[in-house]
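Write out this protein's structure.
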Amino acid sequence: MLLSVQKVKEIYAICRRTLINWEKEGLITPLRTPKGRRRYKKEDIEKLLGMIEEKPKPTVVLYARVSTKKQEEYLKNQIRRLEEYAKSQGWQYEIISEIASGVNENRRGLLRLLNKIKRGEVAKVVIKYPDRLARFGFEYLKFFMESFGVELIVLNGRENEEDINRELAEDLIAIVTSFAARIYGQRGAKRHGNSSGEVSVR
């Protein structure tokens, strides 16, 4: 919606001198009618007055992950490679990195990335390998991102076979450990319940 100088004054109590000063400071740029009269965009005026919260422009997110602390050097190498690519494209970017199993569904870094995507704050996501994003379910995550208009860029198609096997073994150990802890925890809770004065009748 375009407003004349008079309309701006009526609606927002802003005088012509203030509008001219804003123009000189580069804060606002009016459109001109064929007769040279100034017209201001309503949203531009309201942004300057703080009536509209300006959303951050979608950015590029570089996502890197390793499974264990022992792989920190590999994590640094991932980030370095991702940054080199982003800089070669002339992109402004943000880095999200974490140390967490690829089969962990509650990774803080991944959840942070997905929430940023839902809020419309991400234009592109760049990863080095598909397995860095998720050990399983990569295509589902890719579909989720694309449904929000986010481009997922994978720099390399497949990791070194030895690295894959080593990390997969660590992920499987993590799964078994977690599962075993849950089972033994349930058994412990049952034993505790039976020792609370209850009598089993056979």
